[in-house]
Every structure is written in structure tokens, then in C-alpha cells.
Amino acid sequence: MIRDPEHEKMPRKQLEELQLKRLQAKVKEVYEKVPFYRRAFKEKGVTPDDIKTLADLKKLPFTSKLDFRDNYPYGLMAVPLEKVVRIHSSSGTTGKPIVAPYTAADVDMWAEVMARSLASAGMTKHDVMQNAYGYGLFTGGLGFHYGCERLGATVIPTGAGNTKRQIILLQDLGTTVITCTPTYAFILNETAKEMGVDLRETKLRLGICGAEPWSEQMRKDMEEKLHISAINIYGLTEVIGPGVSVECEHKNGMHIWEDHFLVEIIDPGTGEPLPYGKEGELVITTLTKEAQPVIRFRTRDITNLSVEPCKCGRTMVKMARITGRSDDMLVVRGVNVFPSQIESVLLEVEGVEPHYLIVIDRRDVFSAEDLEIWIEVSEEVFSDEMQKMERLEKKLRAEMDSVLGISARIKLVEPRTIVRTEGKAKRVVDRKELPNSGLITK
Ligand code: ADP
Ligand code: ZN
Q1: What is the mean pLDDT of residues 288-313?
Q2: Within a 10 A sphere around the Cβ of 103, how many other Cβ atoms?
Q3: Total number of domains in the chain
């Protein structure tokens, strides 16, 4: 369903006019109110008056996570603290967390883009949404919560964790929509199975998943195991939280709410803007946010944009599934390795579960890194004879070699050796840190 046709289906020309008007106002505002931006603009020799068309965006300086850290906690704010009604923080997947303040208008805009997103995913006010994203500082919980209430559907604020209780509530309360990380959707299914519950027999019909990378194969797997339609949603704390973009029923790219978020794709090496269709790093400028607007924020997420008309009627560009974070990327013996590549192999080979750890080891500074992949085998295979395990290992090694382009050691481990995380999964660990990482059970 299209919640806000006026914006979601706005003709591109009109949309671009709206974006330019909003961009000009926002640029002027940060220039006047945030010393960090004024300095950065001056260093690049630009002033707000130089922004005459959308293409002039590229004259502006980038911002990065580092700028957030350097200006921690309130240095990037464009309003006095008394106008701030809420503060969130990023999950800190890749380092020190950053803070995100919101004015009342920001909270309202966020609820609106989230309500739009849930509607686009196929939710209506008749749905009962069990929200298993973490509540608290993480933006997932409250973002979905406010969006659901705004839409007029029913929210059950379970948060992440307490999985057995979640399964009981899900059955008792007639949950129709589950919102959680893809990792957690699989945990829910595993736990349900242990409890003798088949999620396919519940009222669950829709899953809205995001906050971490996942693949098309994982979607298929999830849809089959849980008997739901699974929708991809994207967002990040620096920009607003979840609700920057989401798929429609056609599931081939996430529509970006461009009346609020202006996007570009750049070459992560040179910083040069790339045309539609080319893969690169996503850069976002917020057009309406008040408390902490961001100009050309480098997300480090790798994707590509498509402006092809969508069958749903929305005119907003679509971004492809994130193939990885540029900072997730491992360089092993000079070769780029993305965890998503490993995942794609695991989802295709029978007998293993998509639970894995990438263990990096470097014996000393002179030797090349060793890449070892710990993979959980399924219950059935594990109880089988040795030979079968060896065959499986060989097969996985061959597949990994061909997908990654370098050889990796494969270590098959017992079911449940790798600890399940309730939020975002952590996949990469240093050999030396492995025993104390909390990522393995023994
Ligand atoms: P952190 O950077 O600490 O993880 P956030 O909670 O703000 O903090 O996470 C935002 C990041 O999560 C995004 O930049 C992106 O890398 C990832 N992410 C969010 N949604 C998705 C999605 N649907 N697919 C892939 N990655 C996603
Ligand atoms: Zn669409």
C-alpha cells in the first residue's frame, strides 16, 4: 500500500525541485549554525550560494563516522540541546558509538517514514507486529515502534531476546508481522522448532528485516522456513535510524524516501560521483532533519541505485541489497573478501547452517594471513559417519576457493558451537581473541 502517494509517486522533475529547495535551505542552515560545517565548507572553498542545482552537491565536503567521533557528543548539532527530545546511539558494530539527537519534528518525520516503510512492506492497520528489534539506545526498537503506531497497527514491544517467551506471545497474541534482524529470525525459528512449534502454522505472514547484511538465498530460506514474505529495510543512526529505504511488494530494490534523504553513489577510492547503476559507496544528505542534519555522509555501505520505473508506481529510486560495508571487507593476502560471499556458499551447500565465523590469523608479521572459516553443520549431518563430514568439508573448500578467489581452511563445528547474537551478528574474529570473544560456546 502507498501511504503518501503525493510524495511516493511524485514526478521526478517535481521531486528534484523539492530536493533542491530543501537542500539549499539545509546547507545554509548548517553553514550558519554548525561551526564544523562552516570550517569544512571554507576548506573546500564553497559557500551555500554555490548550490544552484542538485549537481552542485558534489562541491560540498563529505562527512564520515570519524567526524561524528571527533565532534562527540554534541558538536554536530544545529539546534540548542533544549530543542532535543531524544538521543539515540549507534550499535558500535565498527568502533566507538556515535550519538544521534532528535527534535520533536525529527521524531515525527521518522515515525512518518517508518509508517511509509511498513505500509510499503505490506502492513496495514489490521496487523499485529511483534517488534523484536532491540529497544533502548539502538534505533531499531523505537523506530519500528513509532512507525507501527503511526500506521495504526498493533505493536507488541518484545524487543530482542527472551526467545521462548517470544514464541509463546507470537502464538497467543496472533502476531502477523515479525520485525527483527535476519539473524534473529532464524534464531526464532530454531527455538520454535526446539519447543515443538512450527512457525508455519501460526498467523505470521510477514517479516521486515534489516540492520545487517543478508542475501537473496537467506530470504528464500526464511520465507520457506517461516512461511512468510520477507522484506528488506535499511537505515542508519547517523541519518535517522531504520526507514531510509525499504522494498515494495516487488522485492527488487529498496525505495529511498528521497523527499527526506538525498543520495549519491561514489567511488569509495576517489570520492567521485558515479552514475545510476554503478556499484559504489552510498552517500546520504538529510534534507529535513533538524537536530543533527548530515551533509554528504559516507555510509561505507556498498550498493547501486536504479531509477527505472517500478511496477508499484513509486517514483523514488531503488537501492540494491547492500553487498557489504566497505569496512566489513577483509583483505586477505591482497584479495578482497566480503562475509556475504561466504554466506552465499553456505546457503547453497546442503548439510550446513548459515552460522559461521571468519577467523583471521597471522602467525607473525612476516607471514601472510590465514583465513579459517568455522561452519556449523546441521544436526543430521553431525550424527552421521565421518566420511560424510570429510566429503562436506572438501566440497565447501572447493566452493569457497572458487567464490573467494583464495584458499581458506574449513573447520566444521558441532551444531550450536557459534553463539547466536540477538541483534547484529559478529562474523569476523582474530584468532588471538577467539577464546575470549564470547562468540563460541566452548
Ligand atoms: P552501526 O554502524 O554501529 O552498526 P547502526 O545501527 O546505525 O550502527 O547500523 C547501520 C548500518 O547497518 C548501516 O550502515 C548498514 O551497514 C547496516 N544495515 C542496516 N540495514 C541494512 C540492510 N537492510 N542490509 C544490509 N545492511 C544494513
Ligand atoms: Zn516499487
Answers
A1: 97
A2: 19
A3: 2
